Amino acid sequence: MKMPSARGPVSAAVIDALARSPYDFALDPDRIDDEDLHLALFVLYELHYRGWDGVDDRWEWHPGLLALRSGLEARFEAQLYELVGAPAPAEDVTHALIALTSDSSGPSLSGYLRGRATWEQFREFATHRSVYHLREADPHTFAIPRLGGKAKAALIEIQLDEYGGGVLSRMHQEMFKDTMTALGLDTEYGRYVDVVPATTLANNNLMSLFGLHRRWRGALLGHLAAYEMTSTGPNRAYGNGLRRLGGDAAATRFYDEHVEADAVHEQIAAYDMCGSFCRAEPESAGDVLFGARCVLALDDRWAASILERWAAGESSLRE
After folding, report:
1. For 97-144, how does the pLDDT look when each residue is reduced to its tens digit (9 = 90+)?
2. What SUPFAM superfamilies has UniProt attached to this entry (predicted)?
3. Which residues make Cβ contacts (< 8 Å) with residue 89, sequence separation at least 6?
4. Which domain holds residue 276?
5. What is the count of structural domains for the chain?
C-alpha cells in the first residue's frame, strides 16, 4: 500500500519515521484531533496486515511505535466508552445481540442507495467501503488462534465462506474488485485511504483494535456477529440500487453473494460462535455486546455523516 498524506503532527511523525530504517523513535502527543488520531492508528495497524510500500518490516514490533499506538488506542477506547458505555456483565448474549441488531432507528444509508443515490454517490460509497472490503475477513481472522471448541469452529465456518473456500474468484475481497471495476474505481489495495474521512478510518480501526488484542477477543466476535446479523437487508438494497443505476451481474455479485451467505452466517454468529464463546467464558459476555454496540454506533455515525454531506450537495470524501 502506498503511504497516505499526513493529517496532523502525529500522523506526520509516524509517516516520516516509517520512511527510514528503524531507530529510537519516541512520541507522546498532548493533543490530537480525530483525523490525525485515526490516520496515525490506521498507518500503525497496517504494519500488521500487508504493510506499506518501502517500509522496513522490522517497524511492526518496534517498541517506540507500540508505545505510541498504546497511547492512541487509549484515546480511541475512551471515545468508545463515551459513545456506548464500558463493557458490563451480561446474560443471554444471543438474544441481546438479536435485540441490538433488530433496531432500525439509525440512518438508512442502504435505503438511500437503493432508491435515490446517483452513480457518483454510489461510487463514493464504494470508495469508503473499499478500505475494508479489499481486506474483508482479515481482521476477524486474528481471533481464530485465540478461541477453542465450538466457537472456534463456528468462526472458521464463517471465515471459509468469506475467503471463498480457497477459490480466488469467490473470495469476497476479489468479488468487490469486480464491483469497483464496474464503478470505474481503482482496485489497488488501500488506494483510497487518502480520501476517506476519520469516520471511515475509525470503522476500520475498530476491527484492528479488537483483532490485535487478545483481551478484546470477545468484542471482536461481537463485532463480527453484528456485521453478519445486519448484512442481508442492506446488501440486498445495495445490489438493487446498483442494478437501478445500470450495474450488471458482475457489478452486483458481491452484494448478491452477501444476501445469500449472511442469511446463514447470522445464525452461526449469534448461536454457535457468540453463544458458545459466552458459555465457555461467561466473564467475557459483556465484551461481546460491547463490540456489537461499538460497530453499530460507529456505522450509524459514518452513515449519518455521508447522508448529511450528500443532502448539502457535497462530496462525502476528502479533497
Report:
1. 999 999 888 889 999 999 999 999 999 999 999 999 999 999 999 999
2. Heme oxygenase-like
3. 283, 285, 286
4. 88-311
5. 2
Same domain, residue pair 167 and 265 = yes
How far is Cα 289 from Cα 225, in angstroms, rounded to an integer?
A: 10
Q: How far is CA 60 from CA 48, 69, 253, 306, in A?
A: 6, 11, 36, 33
Residue 319 has a pLDDT of: 85
Q: Which three cell numbers stand for residue 236?
A: 440486498
Query: Do 132 and 166 belong together in one domain?
Result: yes
Residue 4 lies inside a defined structural domain of this protein: no
Kindly report the number of other CB atoms within 10 A of residue 3's CB atom: 18
Chain centroid to CA 12: 23
pLDDT-derived band at 74 (thresholds 50, 70, 90) equals very high
Q: Distance between CA atoms of 102 and 87, rounded to whole angstroms?
A: 20
The CB density around residue 116, as the number of other CB atoms within 10 Å, is 11
Residue 63 has pLDDT above 90, yes or no: yes
Verify that 21 and 153 share a domain, yes or no: no
Q: How far is CA 190 from the centre of its chain?
A: 13
How many other C-beta atoms are found inside a 10 Å radius of the C-beta of residue 165?
Answer: 9
pTM of the model: 0.96
Domain identity same for 175 and 236: yes
CB contact at 8 A, 253 and 175: yes
* CA–CA separation, 10 and 75 (whole Å): 13
Residue with grid cell 476519520, as numbered in its chain: 198
Inside any domain, residue 245: yes
Q: What does the pLDDT look like over 251-274, one tens digit per residue?
A: 999 999 999 888 889 999 999 999
Q: What is the pLDDT of residue 106?
A: 82
Among candidate residues 160, 179, 169, 149, the one with its CA nearest the CA of residue 252: 179
Please give the Cα distance from 52 to 54 (Å, whole number).
6
More confident residue, 285 or 106: 285
Which CATH number do you get for residue 117? 1.20.910.10
Q: What is the dihedral of CA 46, 81, 159, 208, to 10 degrees?
A: 10
Which of 22, 56, 82 is the C-terminal boundary of a domain?
82
C-alpha cell at 136: 474483508
C-alpha cell at 38: 485515526
